[in-house]
Write a structure and sequence with these properties.
about 160 residues; alpha+beta; Helix Hairpins; two-stranded antiparallel sheet; globular; disordered N terminus
């Protein structure tokens, strides 16, 4: 059976935030699989962009999630199995404070993008380690989440509460 692959940029709302979806179709044009690849852009401050479509799509070297998970686990050094879960809460709080101080409290400064990147990495380490403890490959966790979100997008239920919408 022959397949074709199409990339589509979906823009949503006035903020310009969107997704790139990859659809694989078979010979009779029915969709075989839809995969959301990445957010369109992350607008941090007026006119400041952390990442654009072009930088995401043209990067020649990138680390695969499972490779990251393996390398991250090699650095794991803790005594209690709950450490990665508790660390995730701490690191997510540190990441949140990067935005809270600027956007909500009104500090007269820009978001420290380099610091936010480091905090995101710390969150990712914790998530990767939790996945390892549960016996999951990080790529499977990511694909499961994308499949769930794509289903919600198709059903028009991205907004709301609860997993089963």
């Amino acid at each position: 059976m022959s397949h074709s692959t199409n990339l589509t940029l979906n823009m949503m709302g006035a903020s310009g935030v969107g997704t790139i979806t990859q659809e694989e179709t078979n010979h009779d044009a029915s969709i075989v699989r839809t995969k959301i690849i990445t957010p369109n852009t992350c607008q941090l401050n007026q006119g400041e962009k952390a990442m654009t479509q072009d930088s995401l799509l043209t990067k020649e070297e990138s680390m695969e999630l499972d490779e990251y998970q393996y390398l991250a686990h090699r650095t794991a050094n803790y005594r209690h199995e709950m450490y990665p879960m508790m660390l995730l809460h701490e690191e997510a709080g540190e990441l949140s404070s990067q935005f809270t101080k600027v956007k909500l409290r009104g500090d007269d400064k820009h978001i420290d993008v380099a610091a936010a990147k480091k905090e995101l990495g710390d969150c990712l380490w914790s998530i990767a380690e939790i996945a390892t403890q549960l016996g999951f490959k990080l790529s499977d966790v990511a694909q499961t989440n994308i499949d769930k979100l794509a289903g919600r997008q198709r059903r028009g239920t991205l907004l709301g509460d609860g997993d089963d919408r």
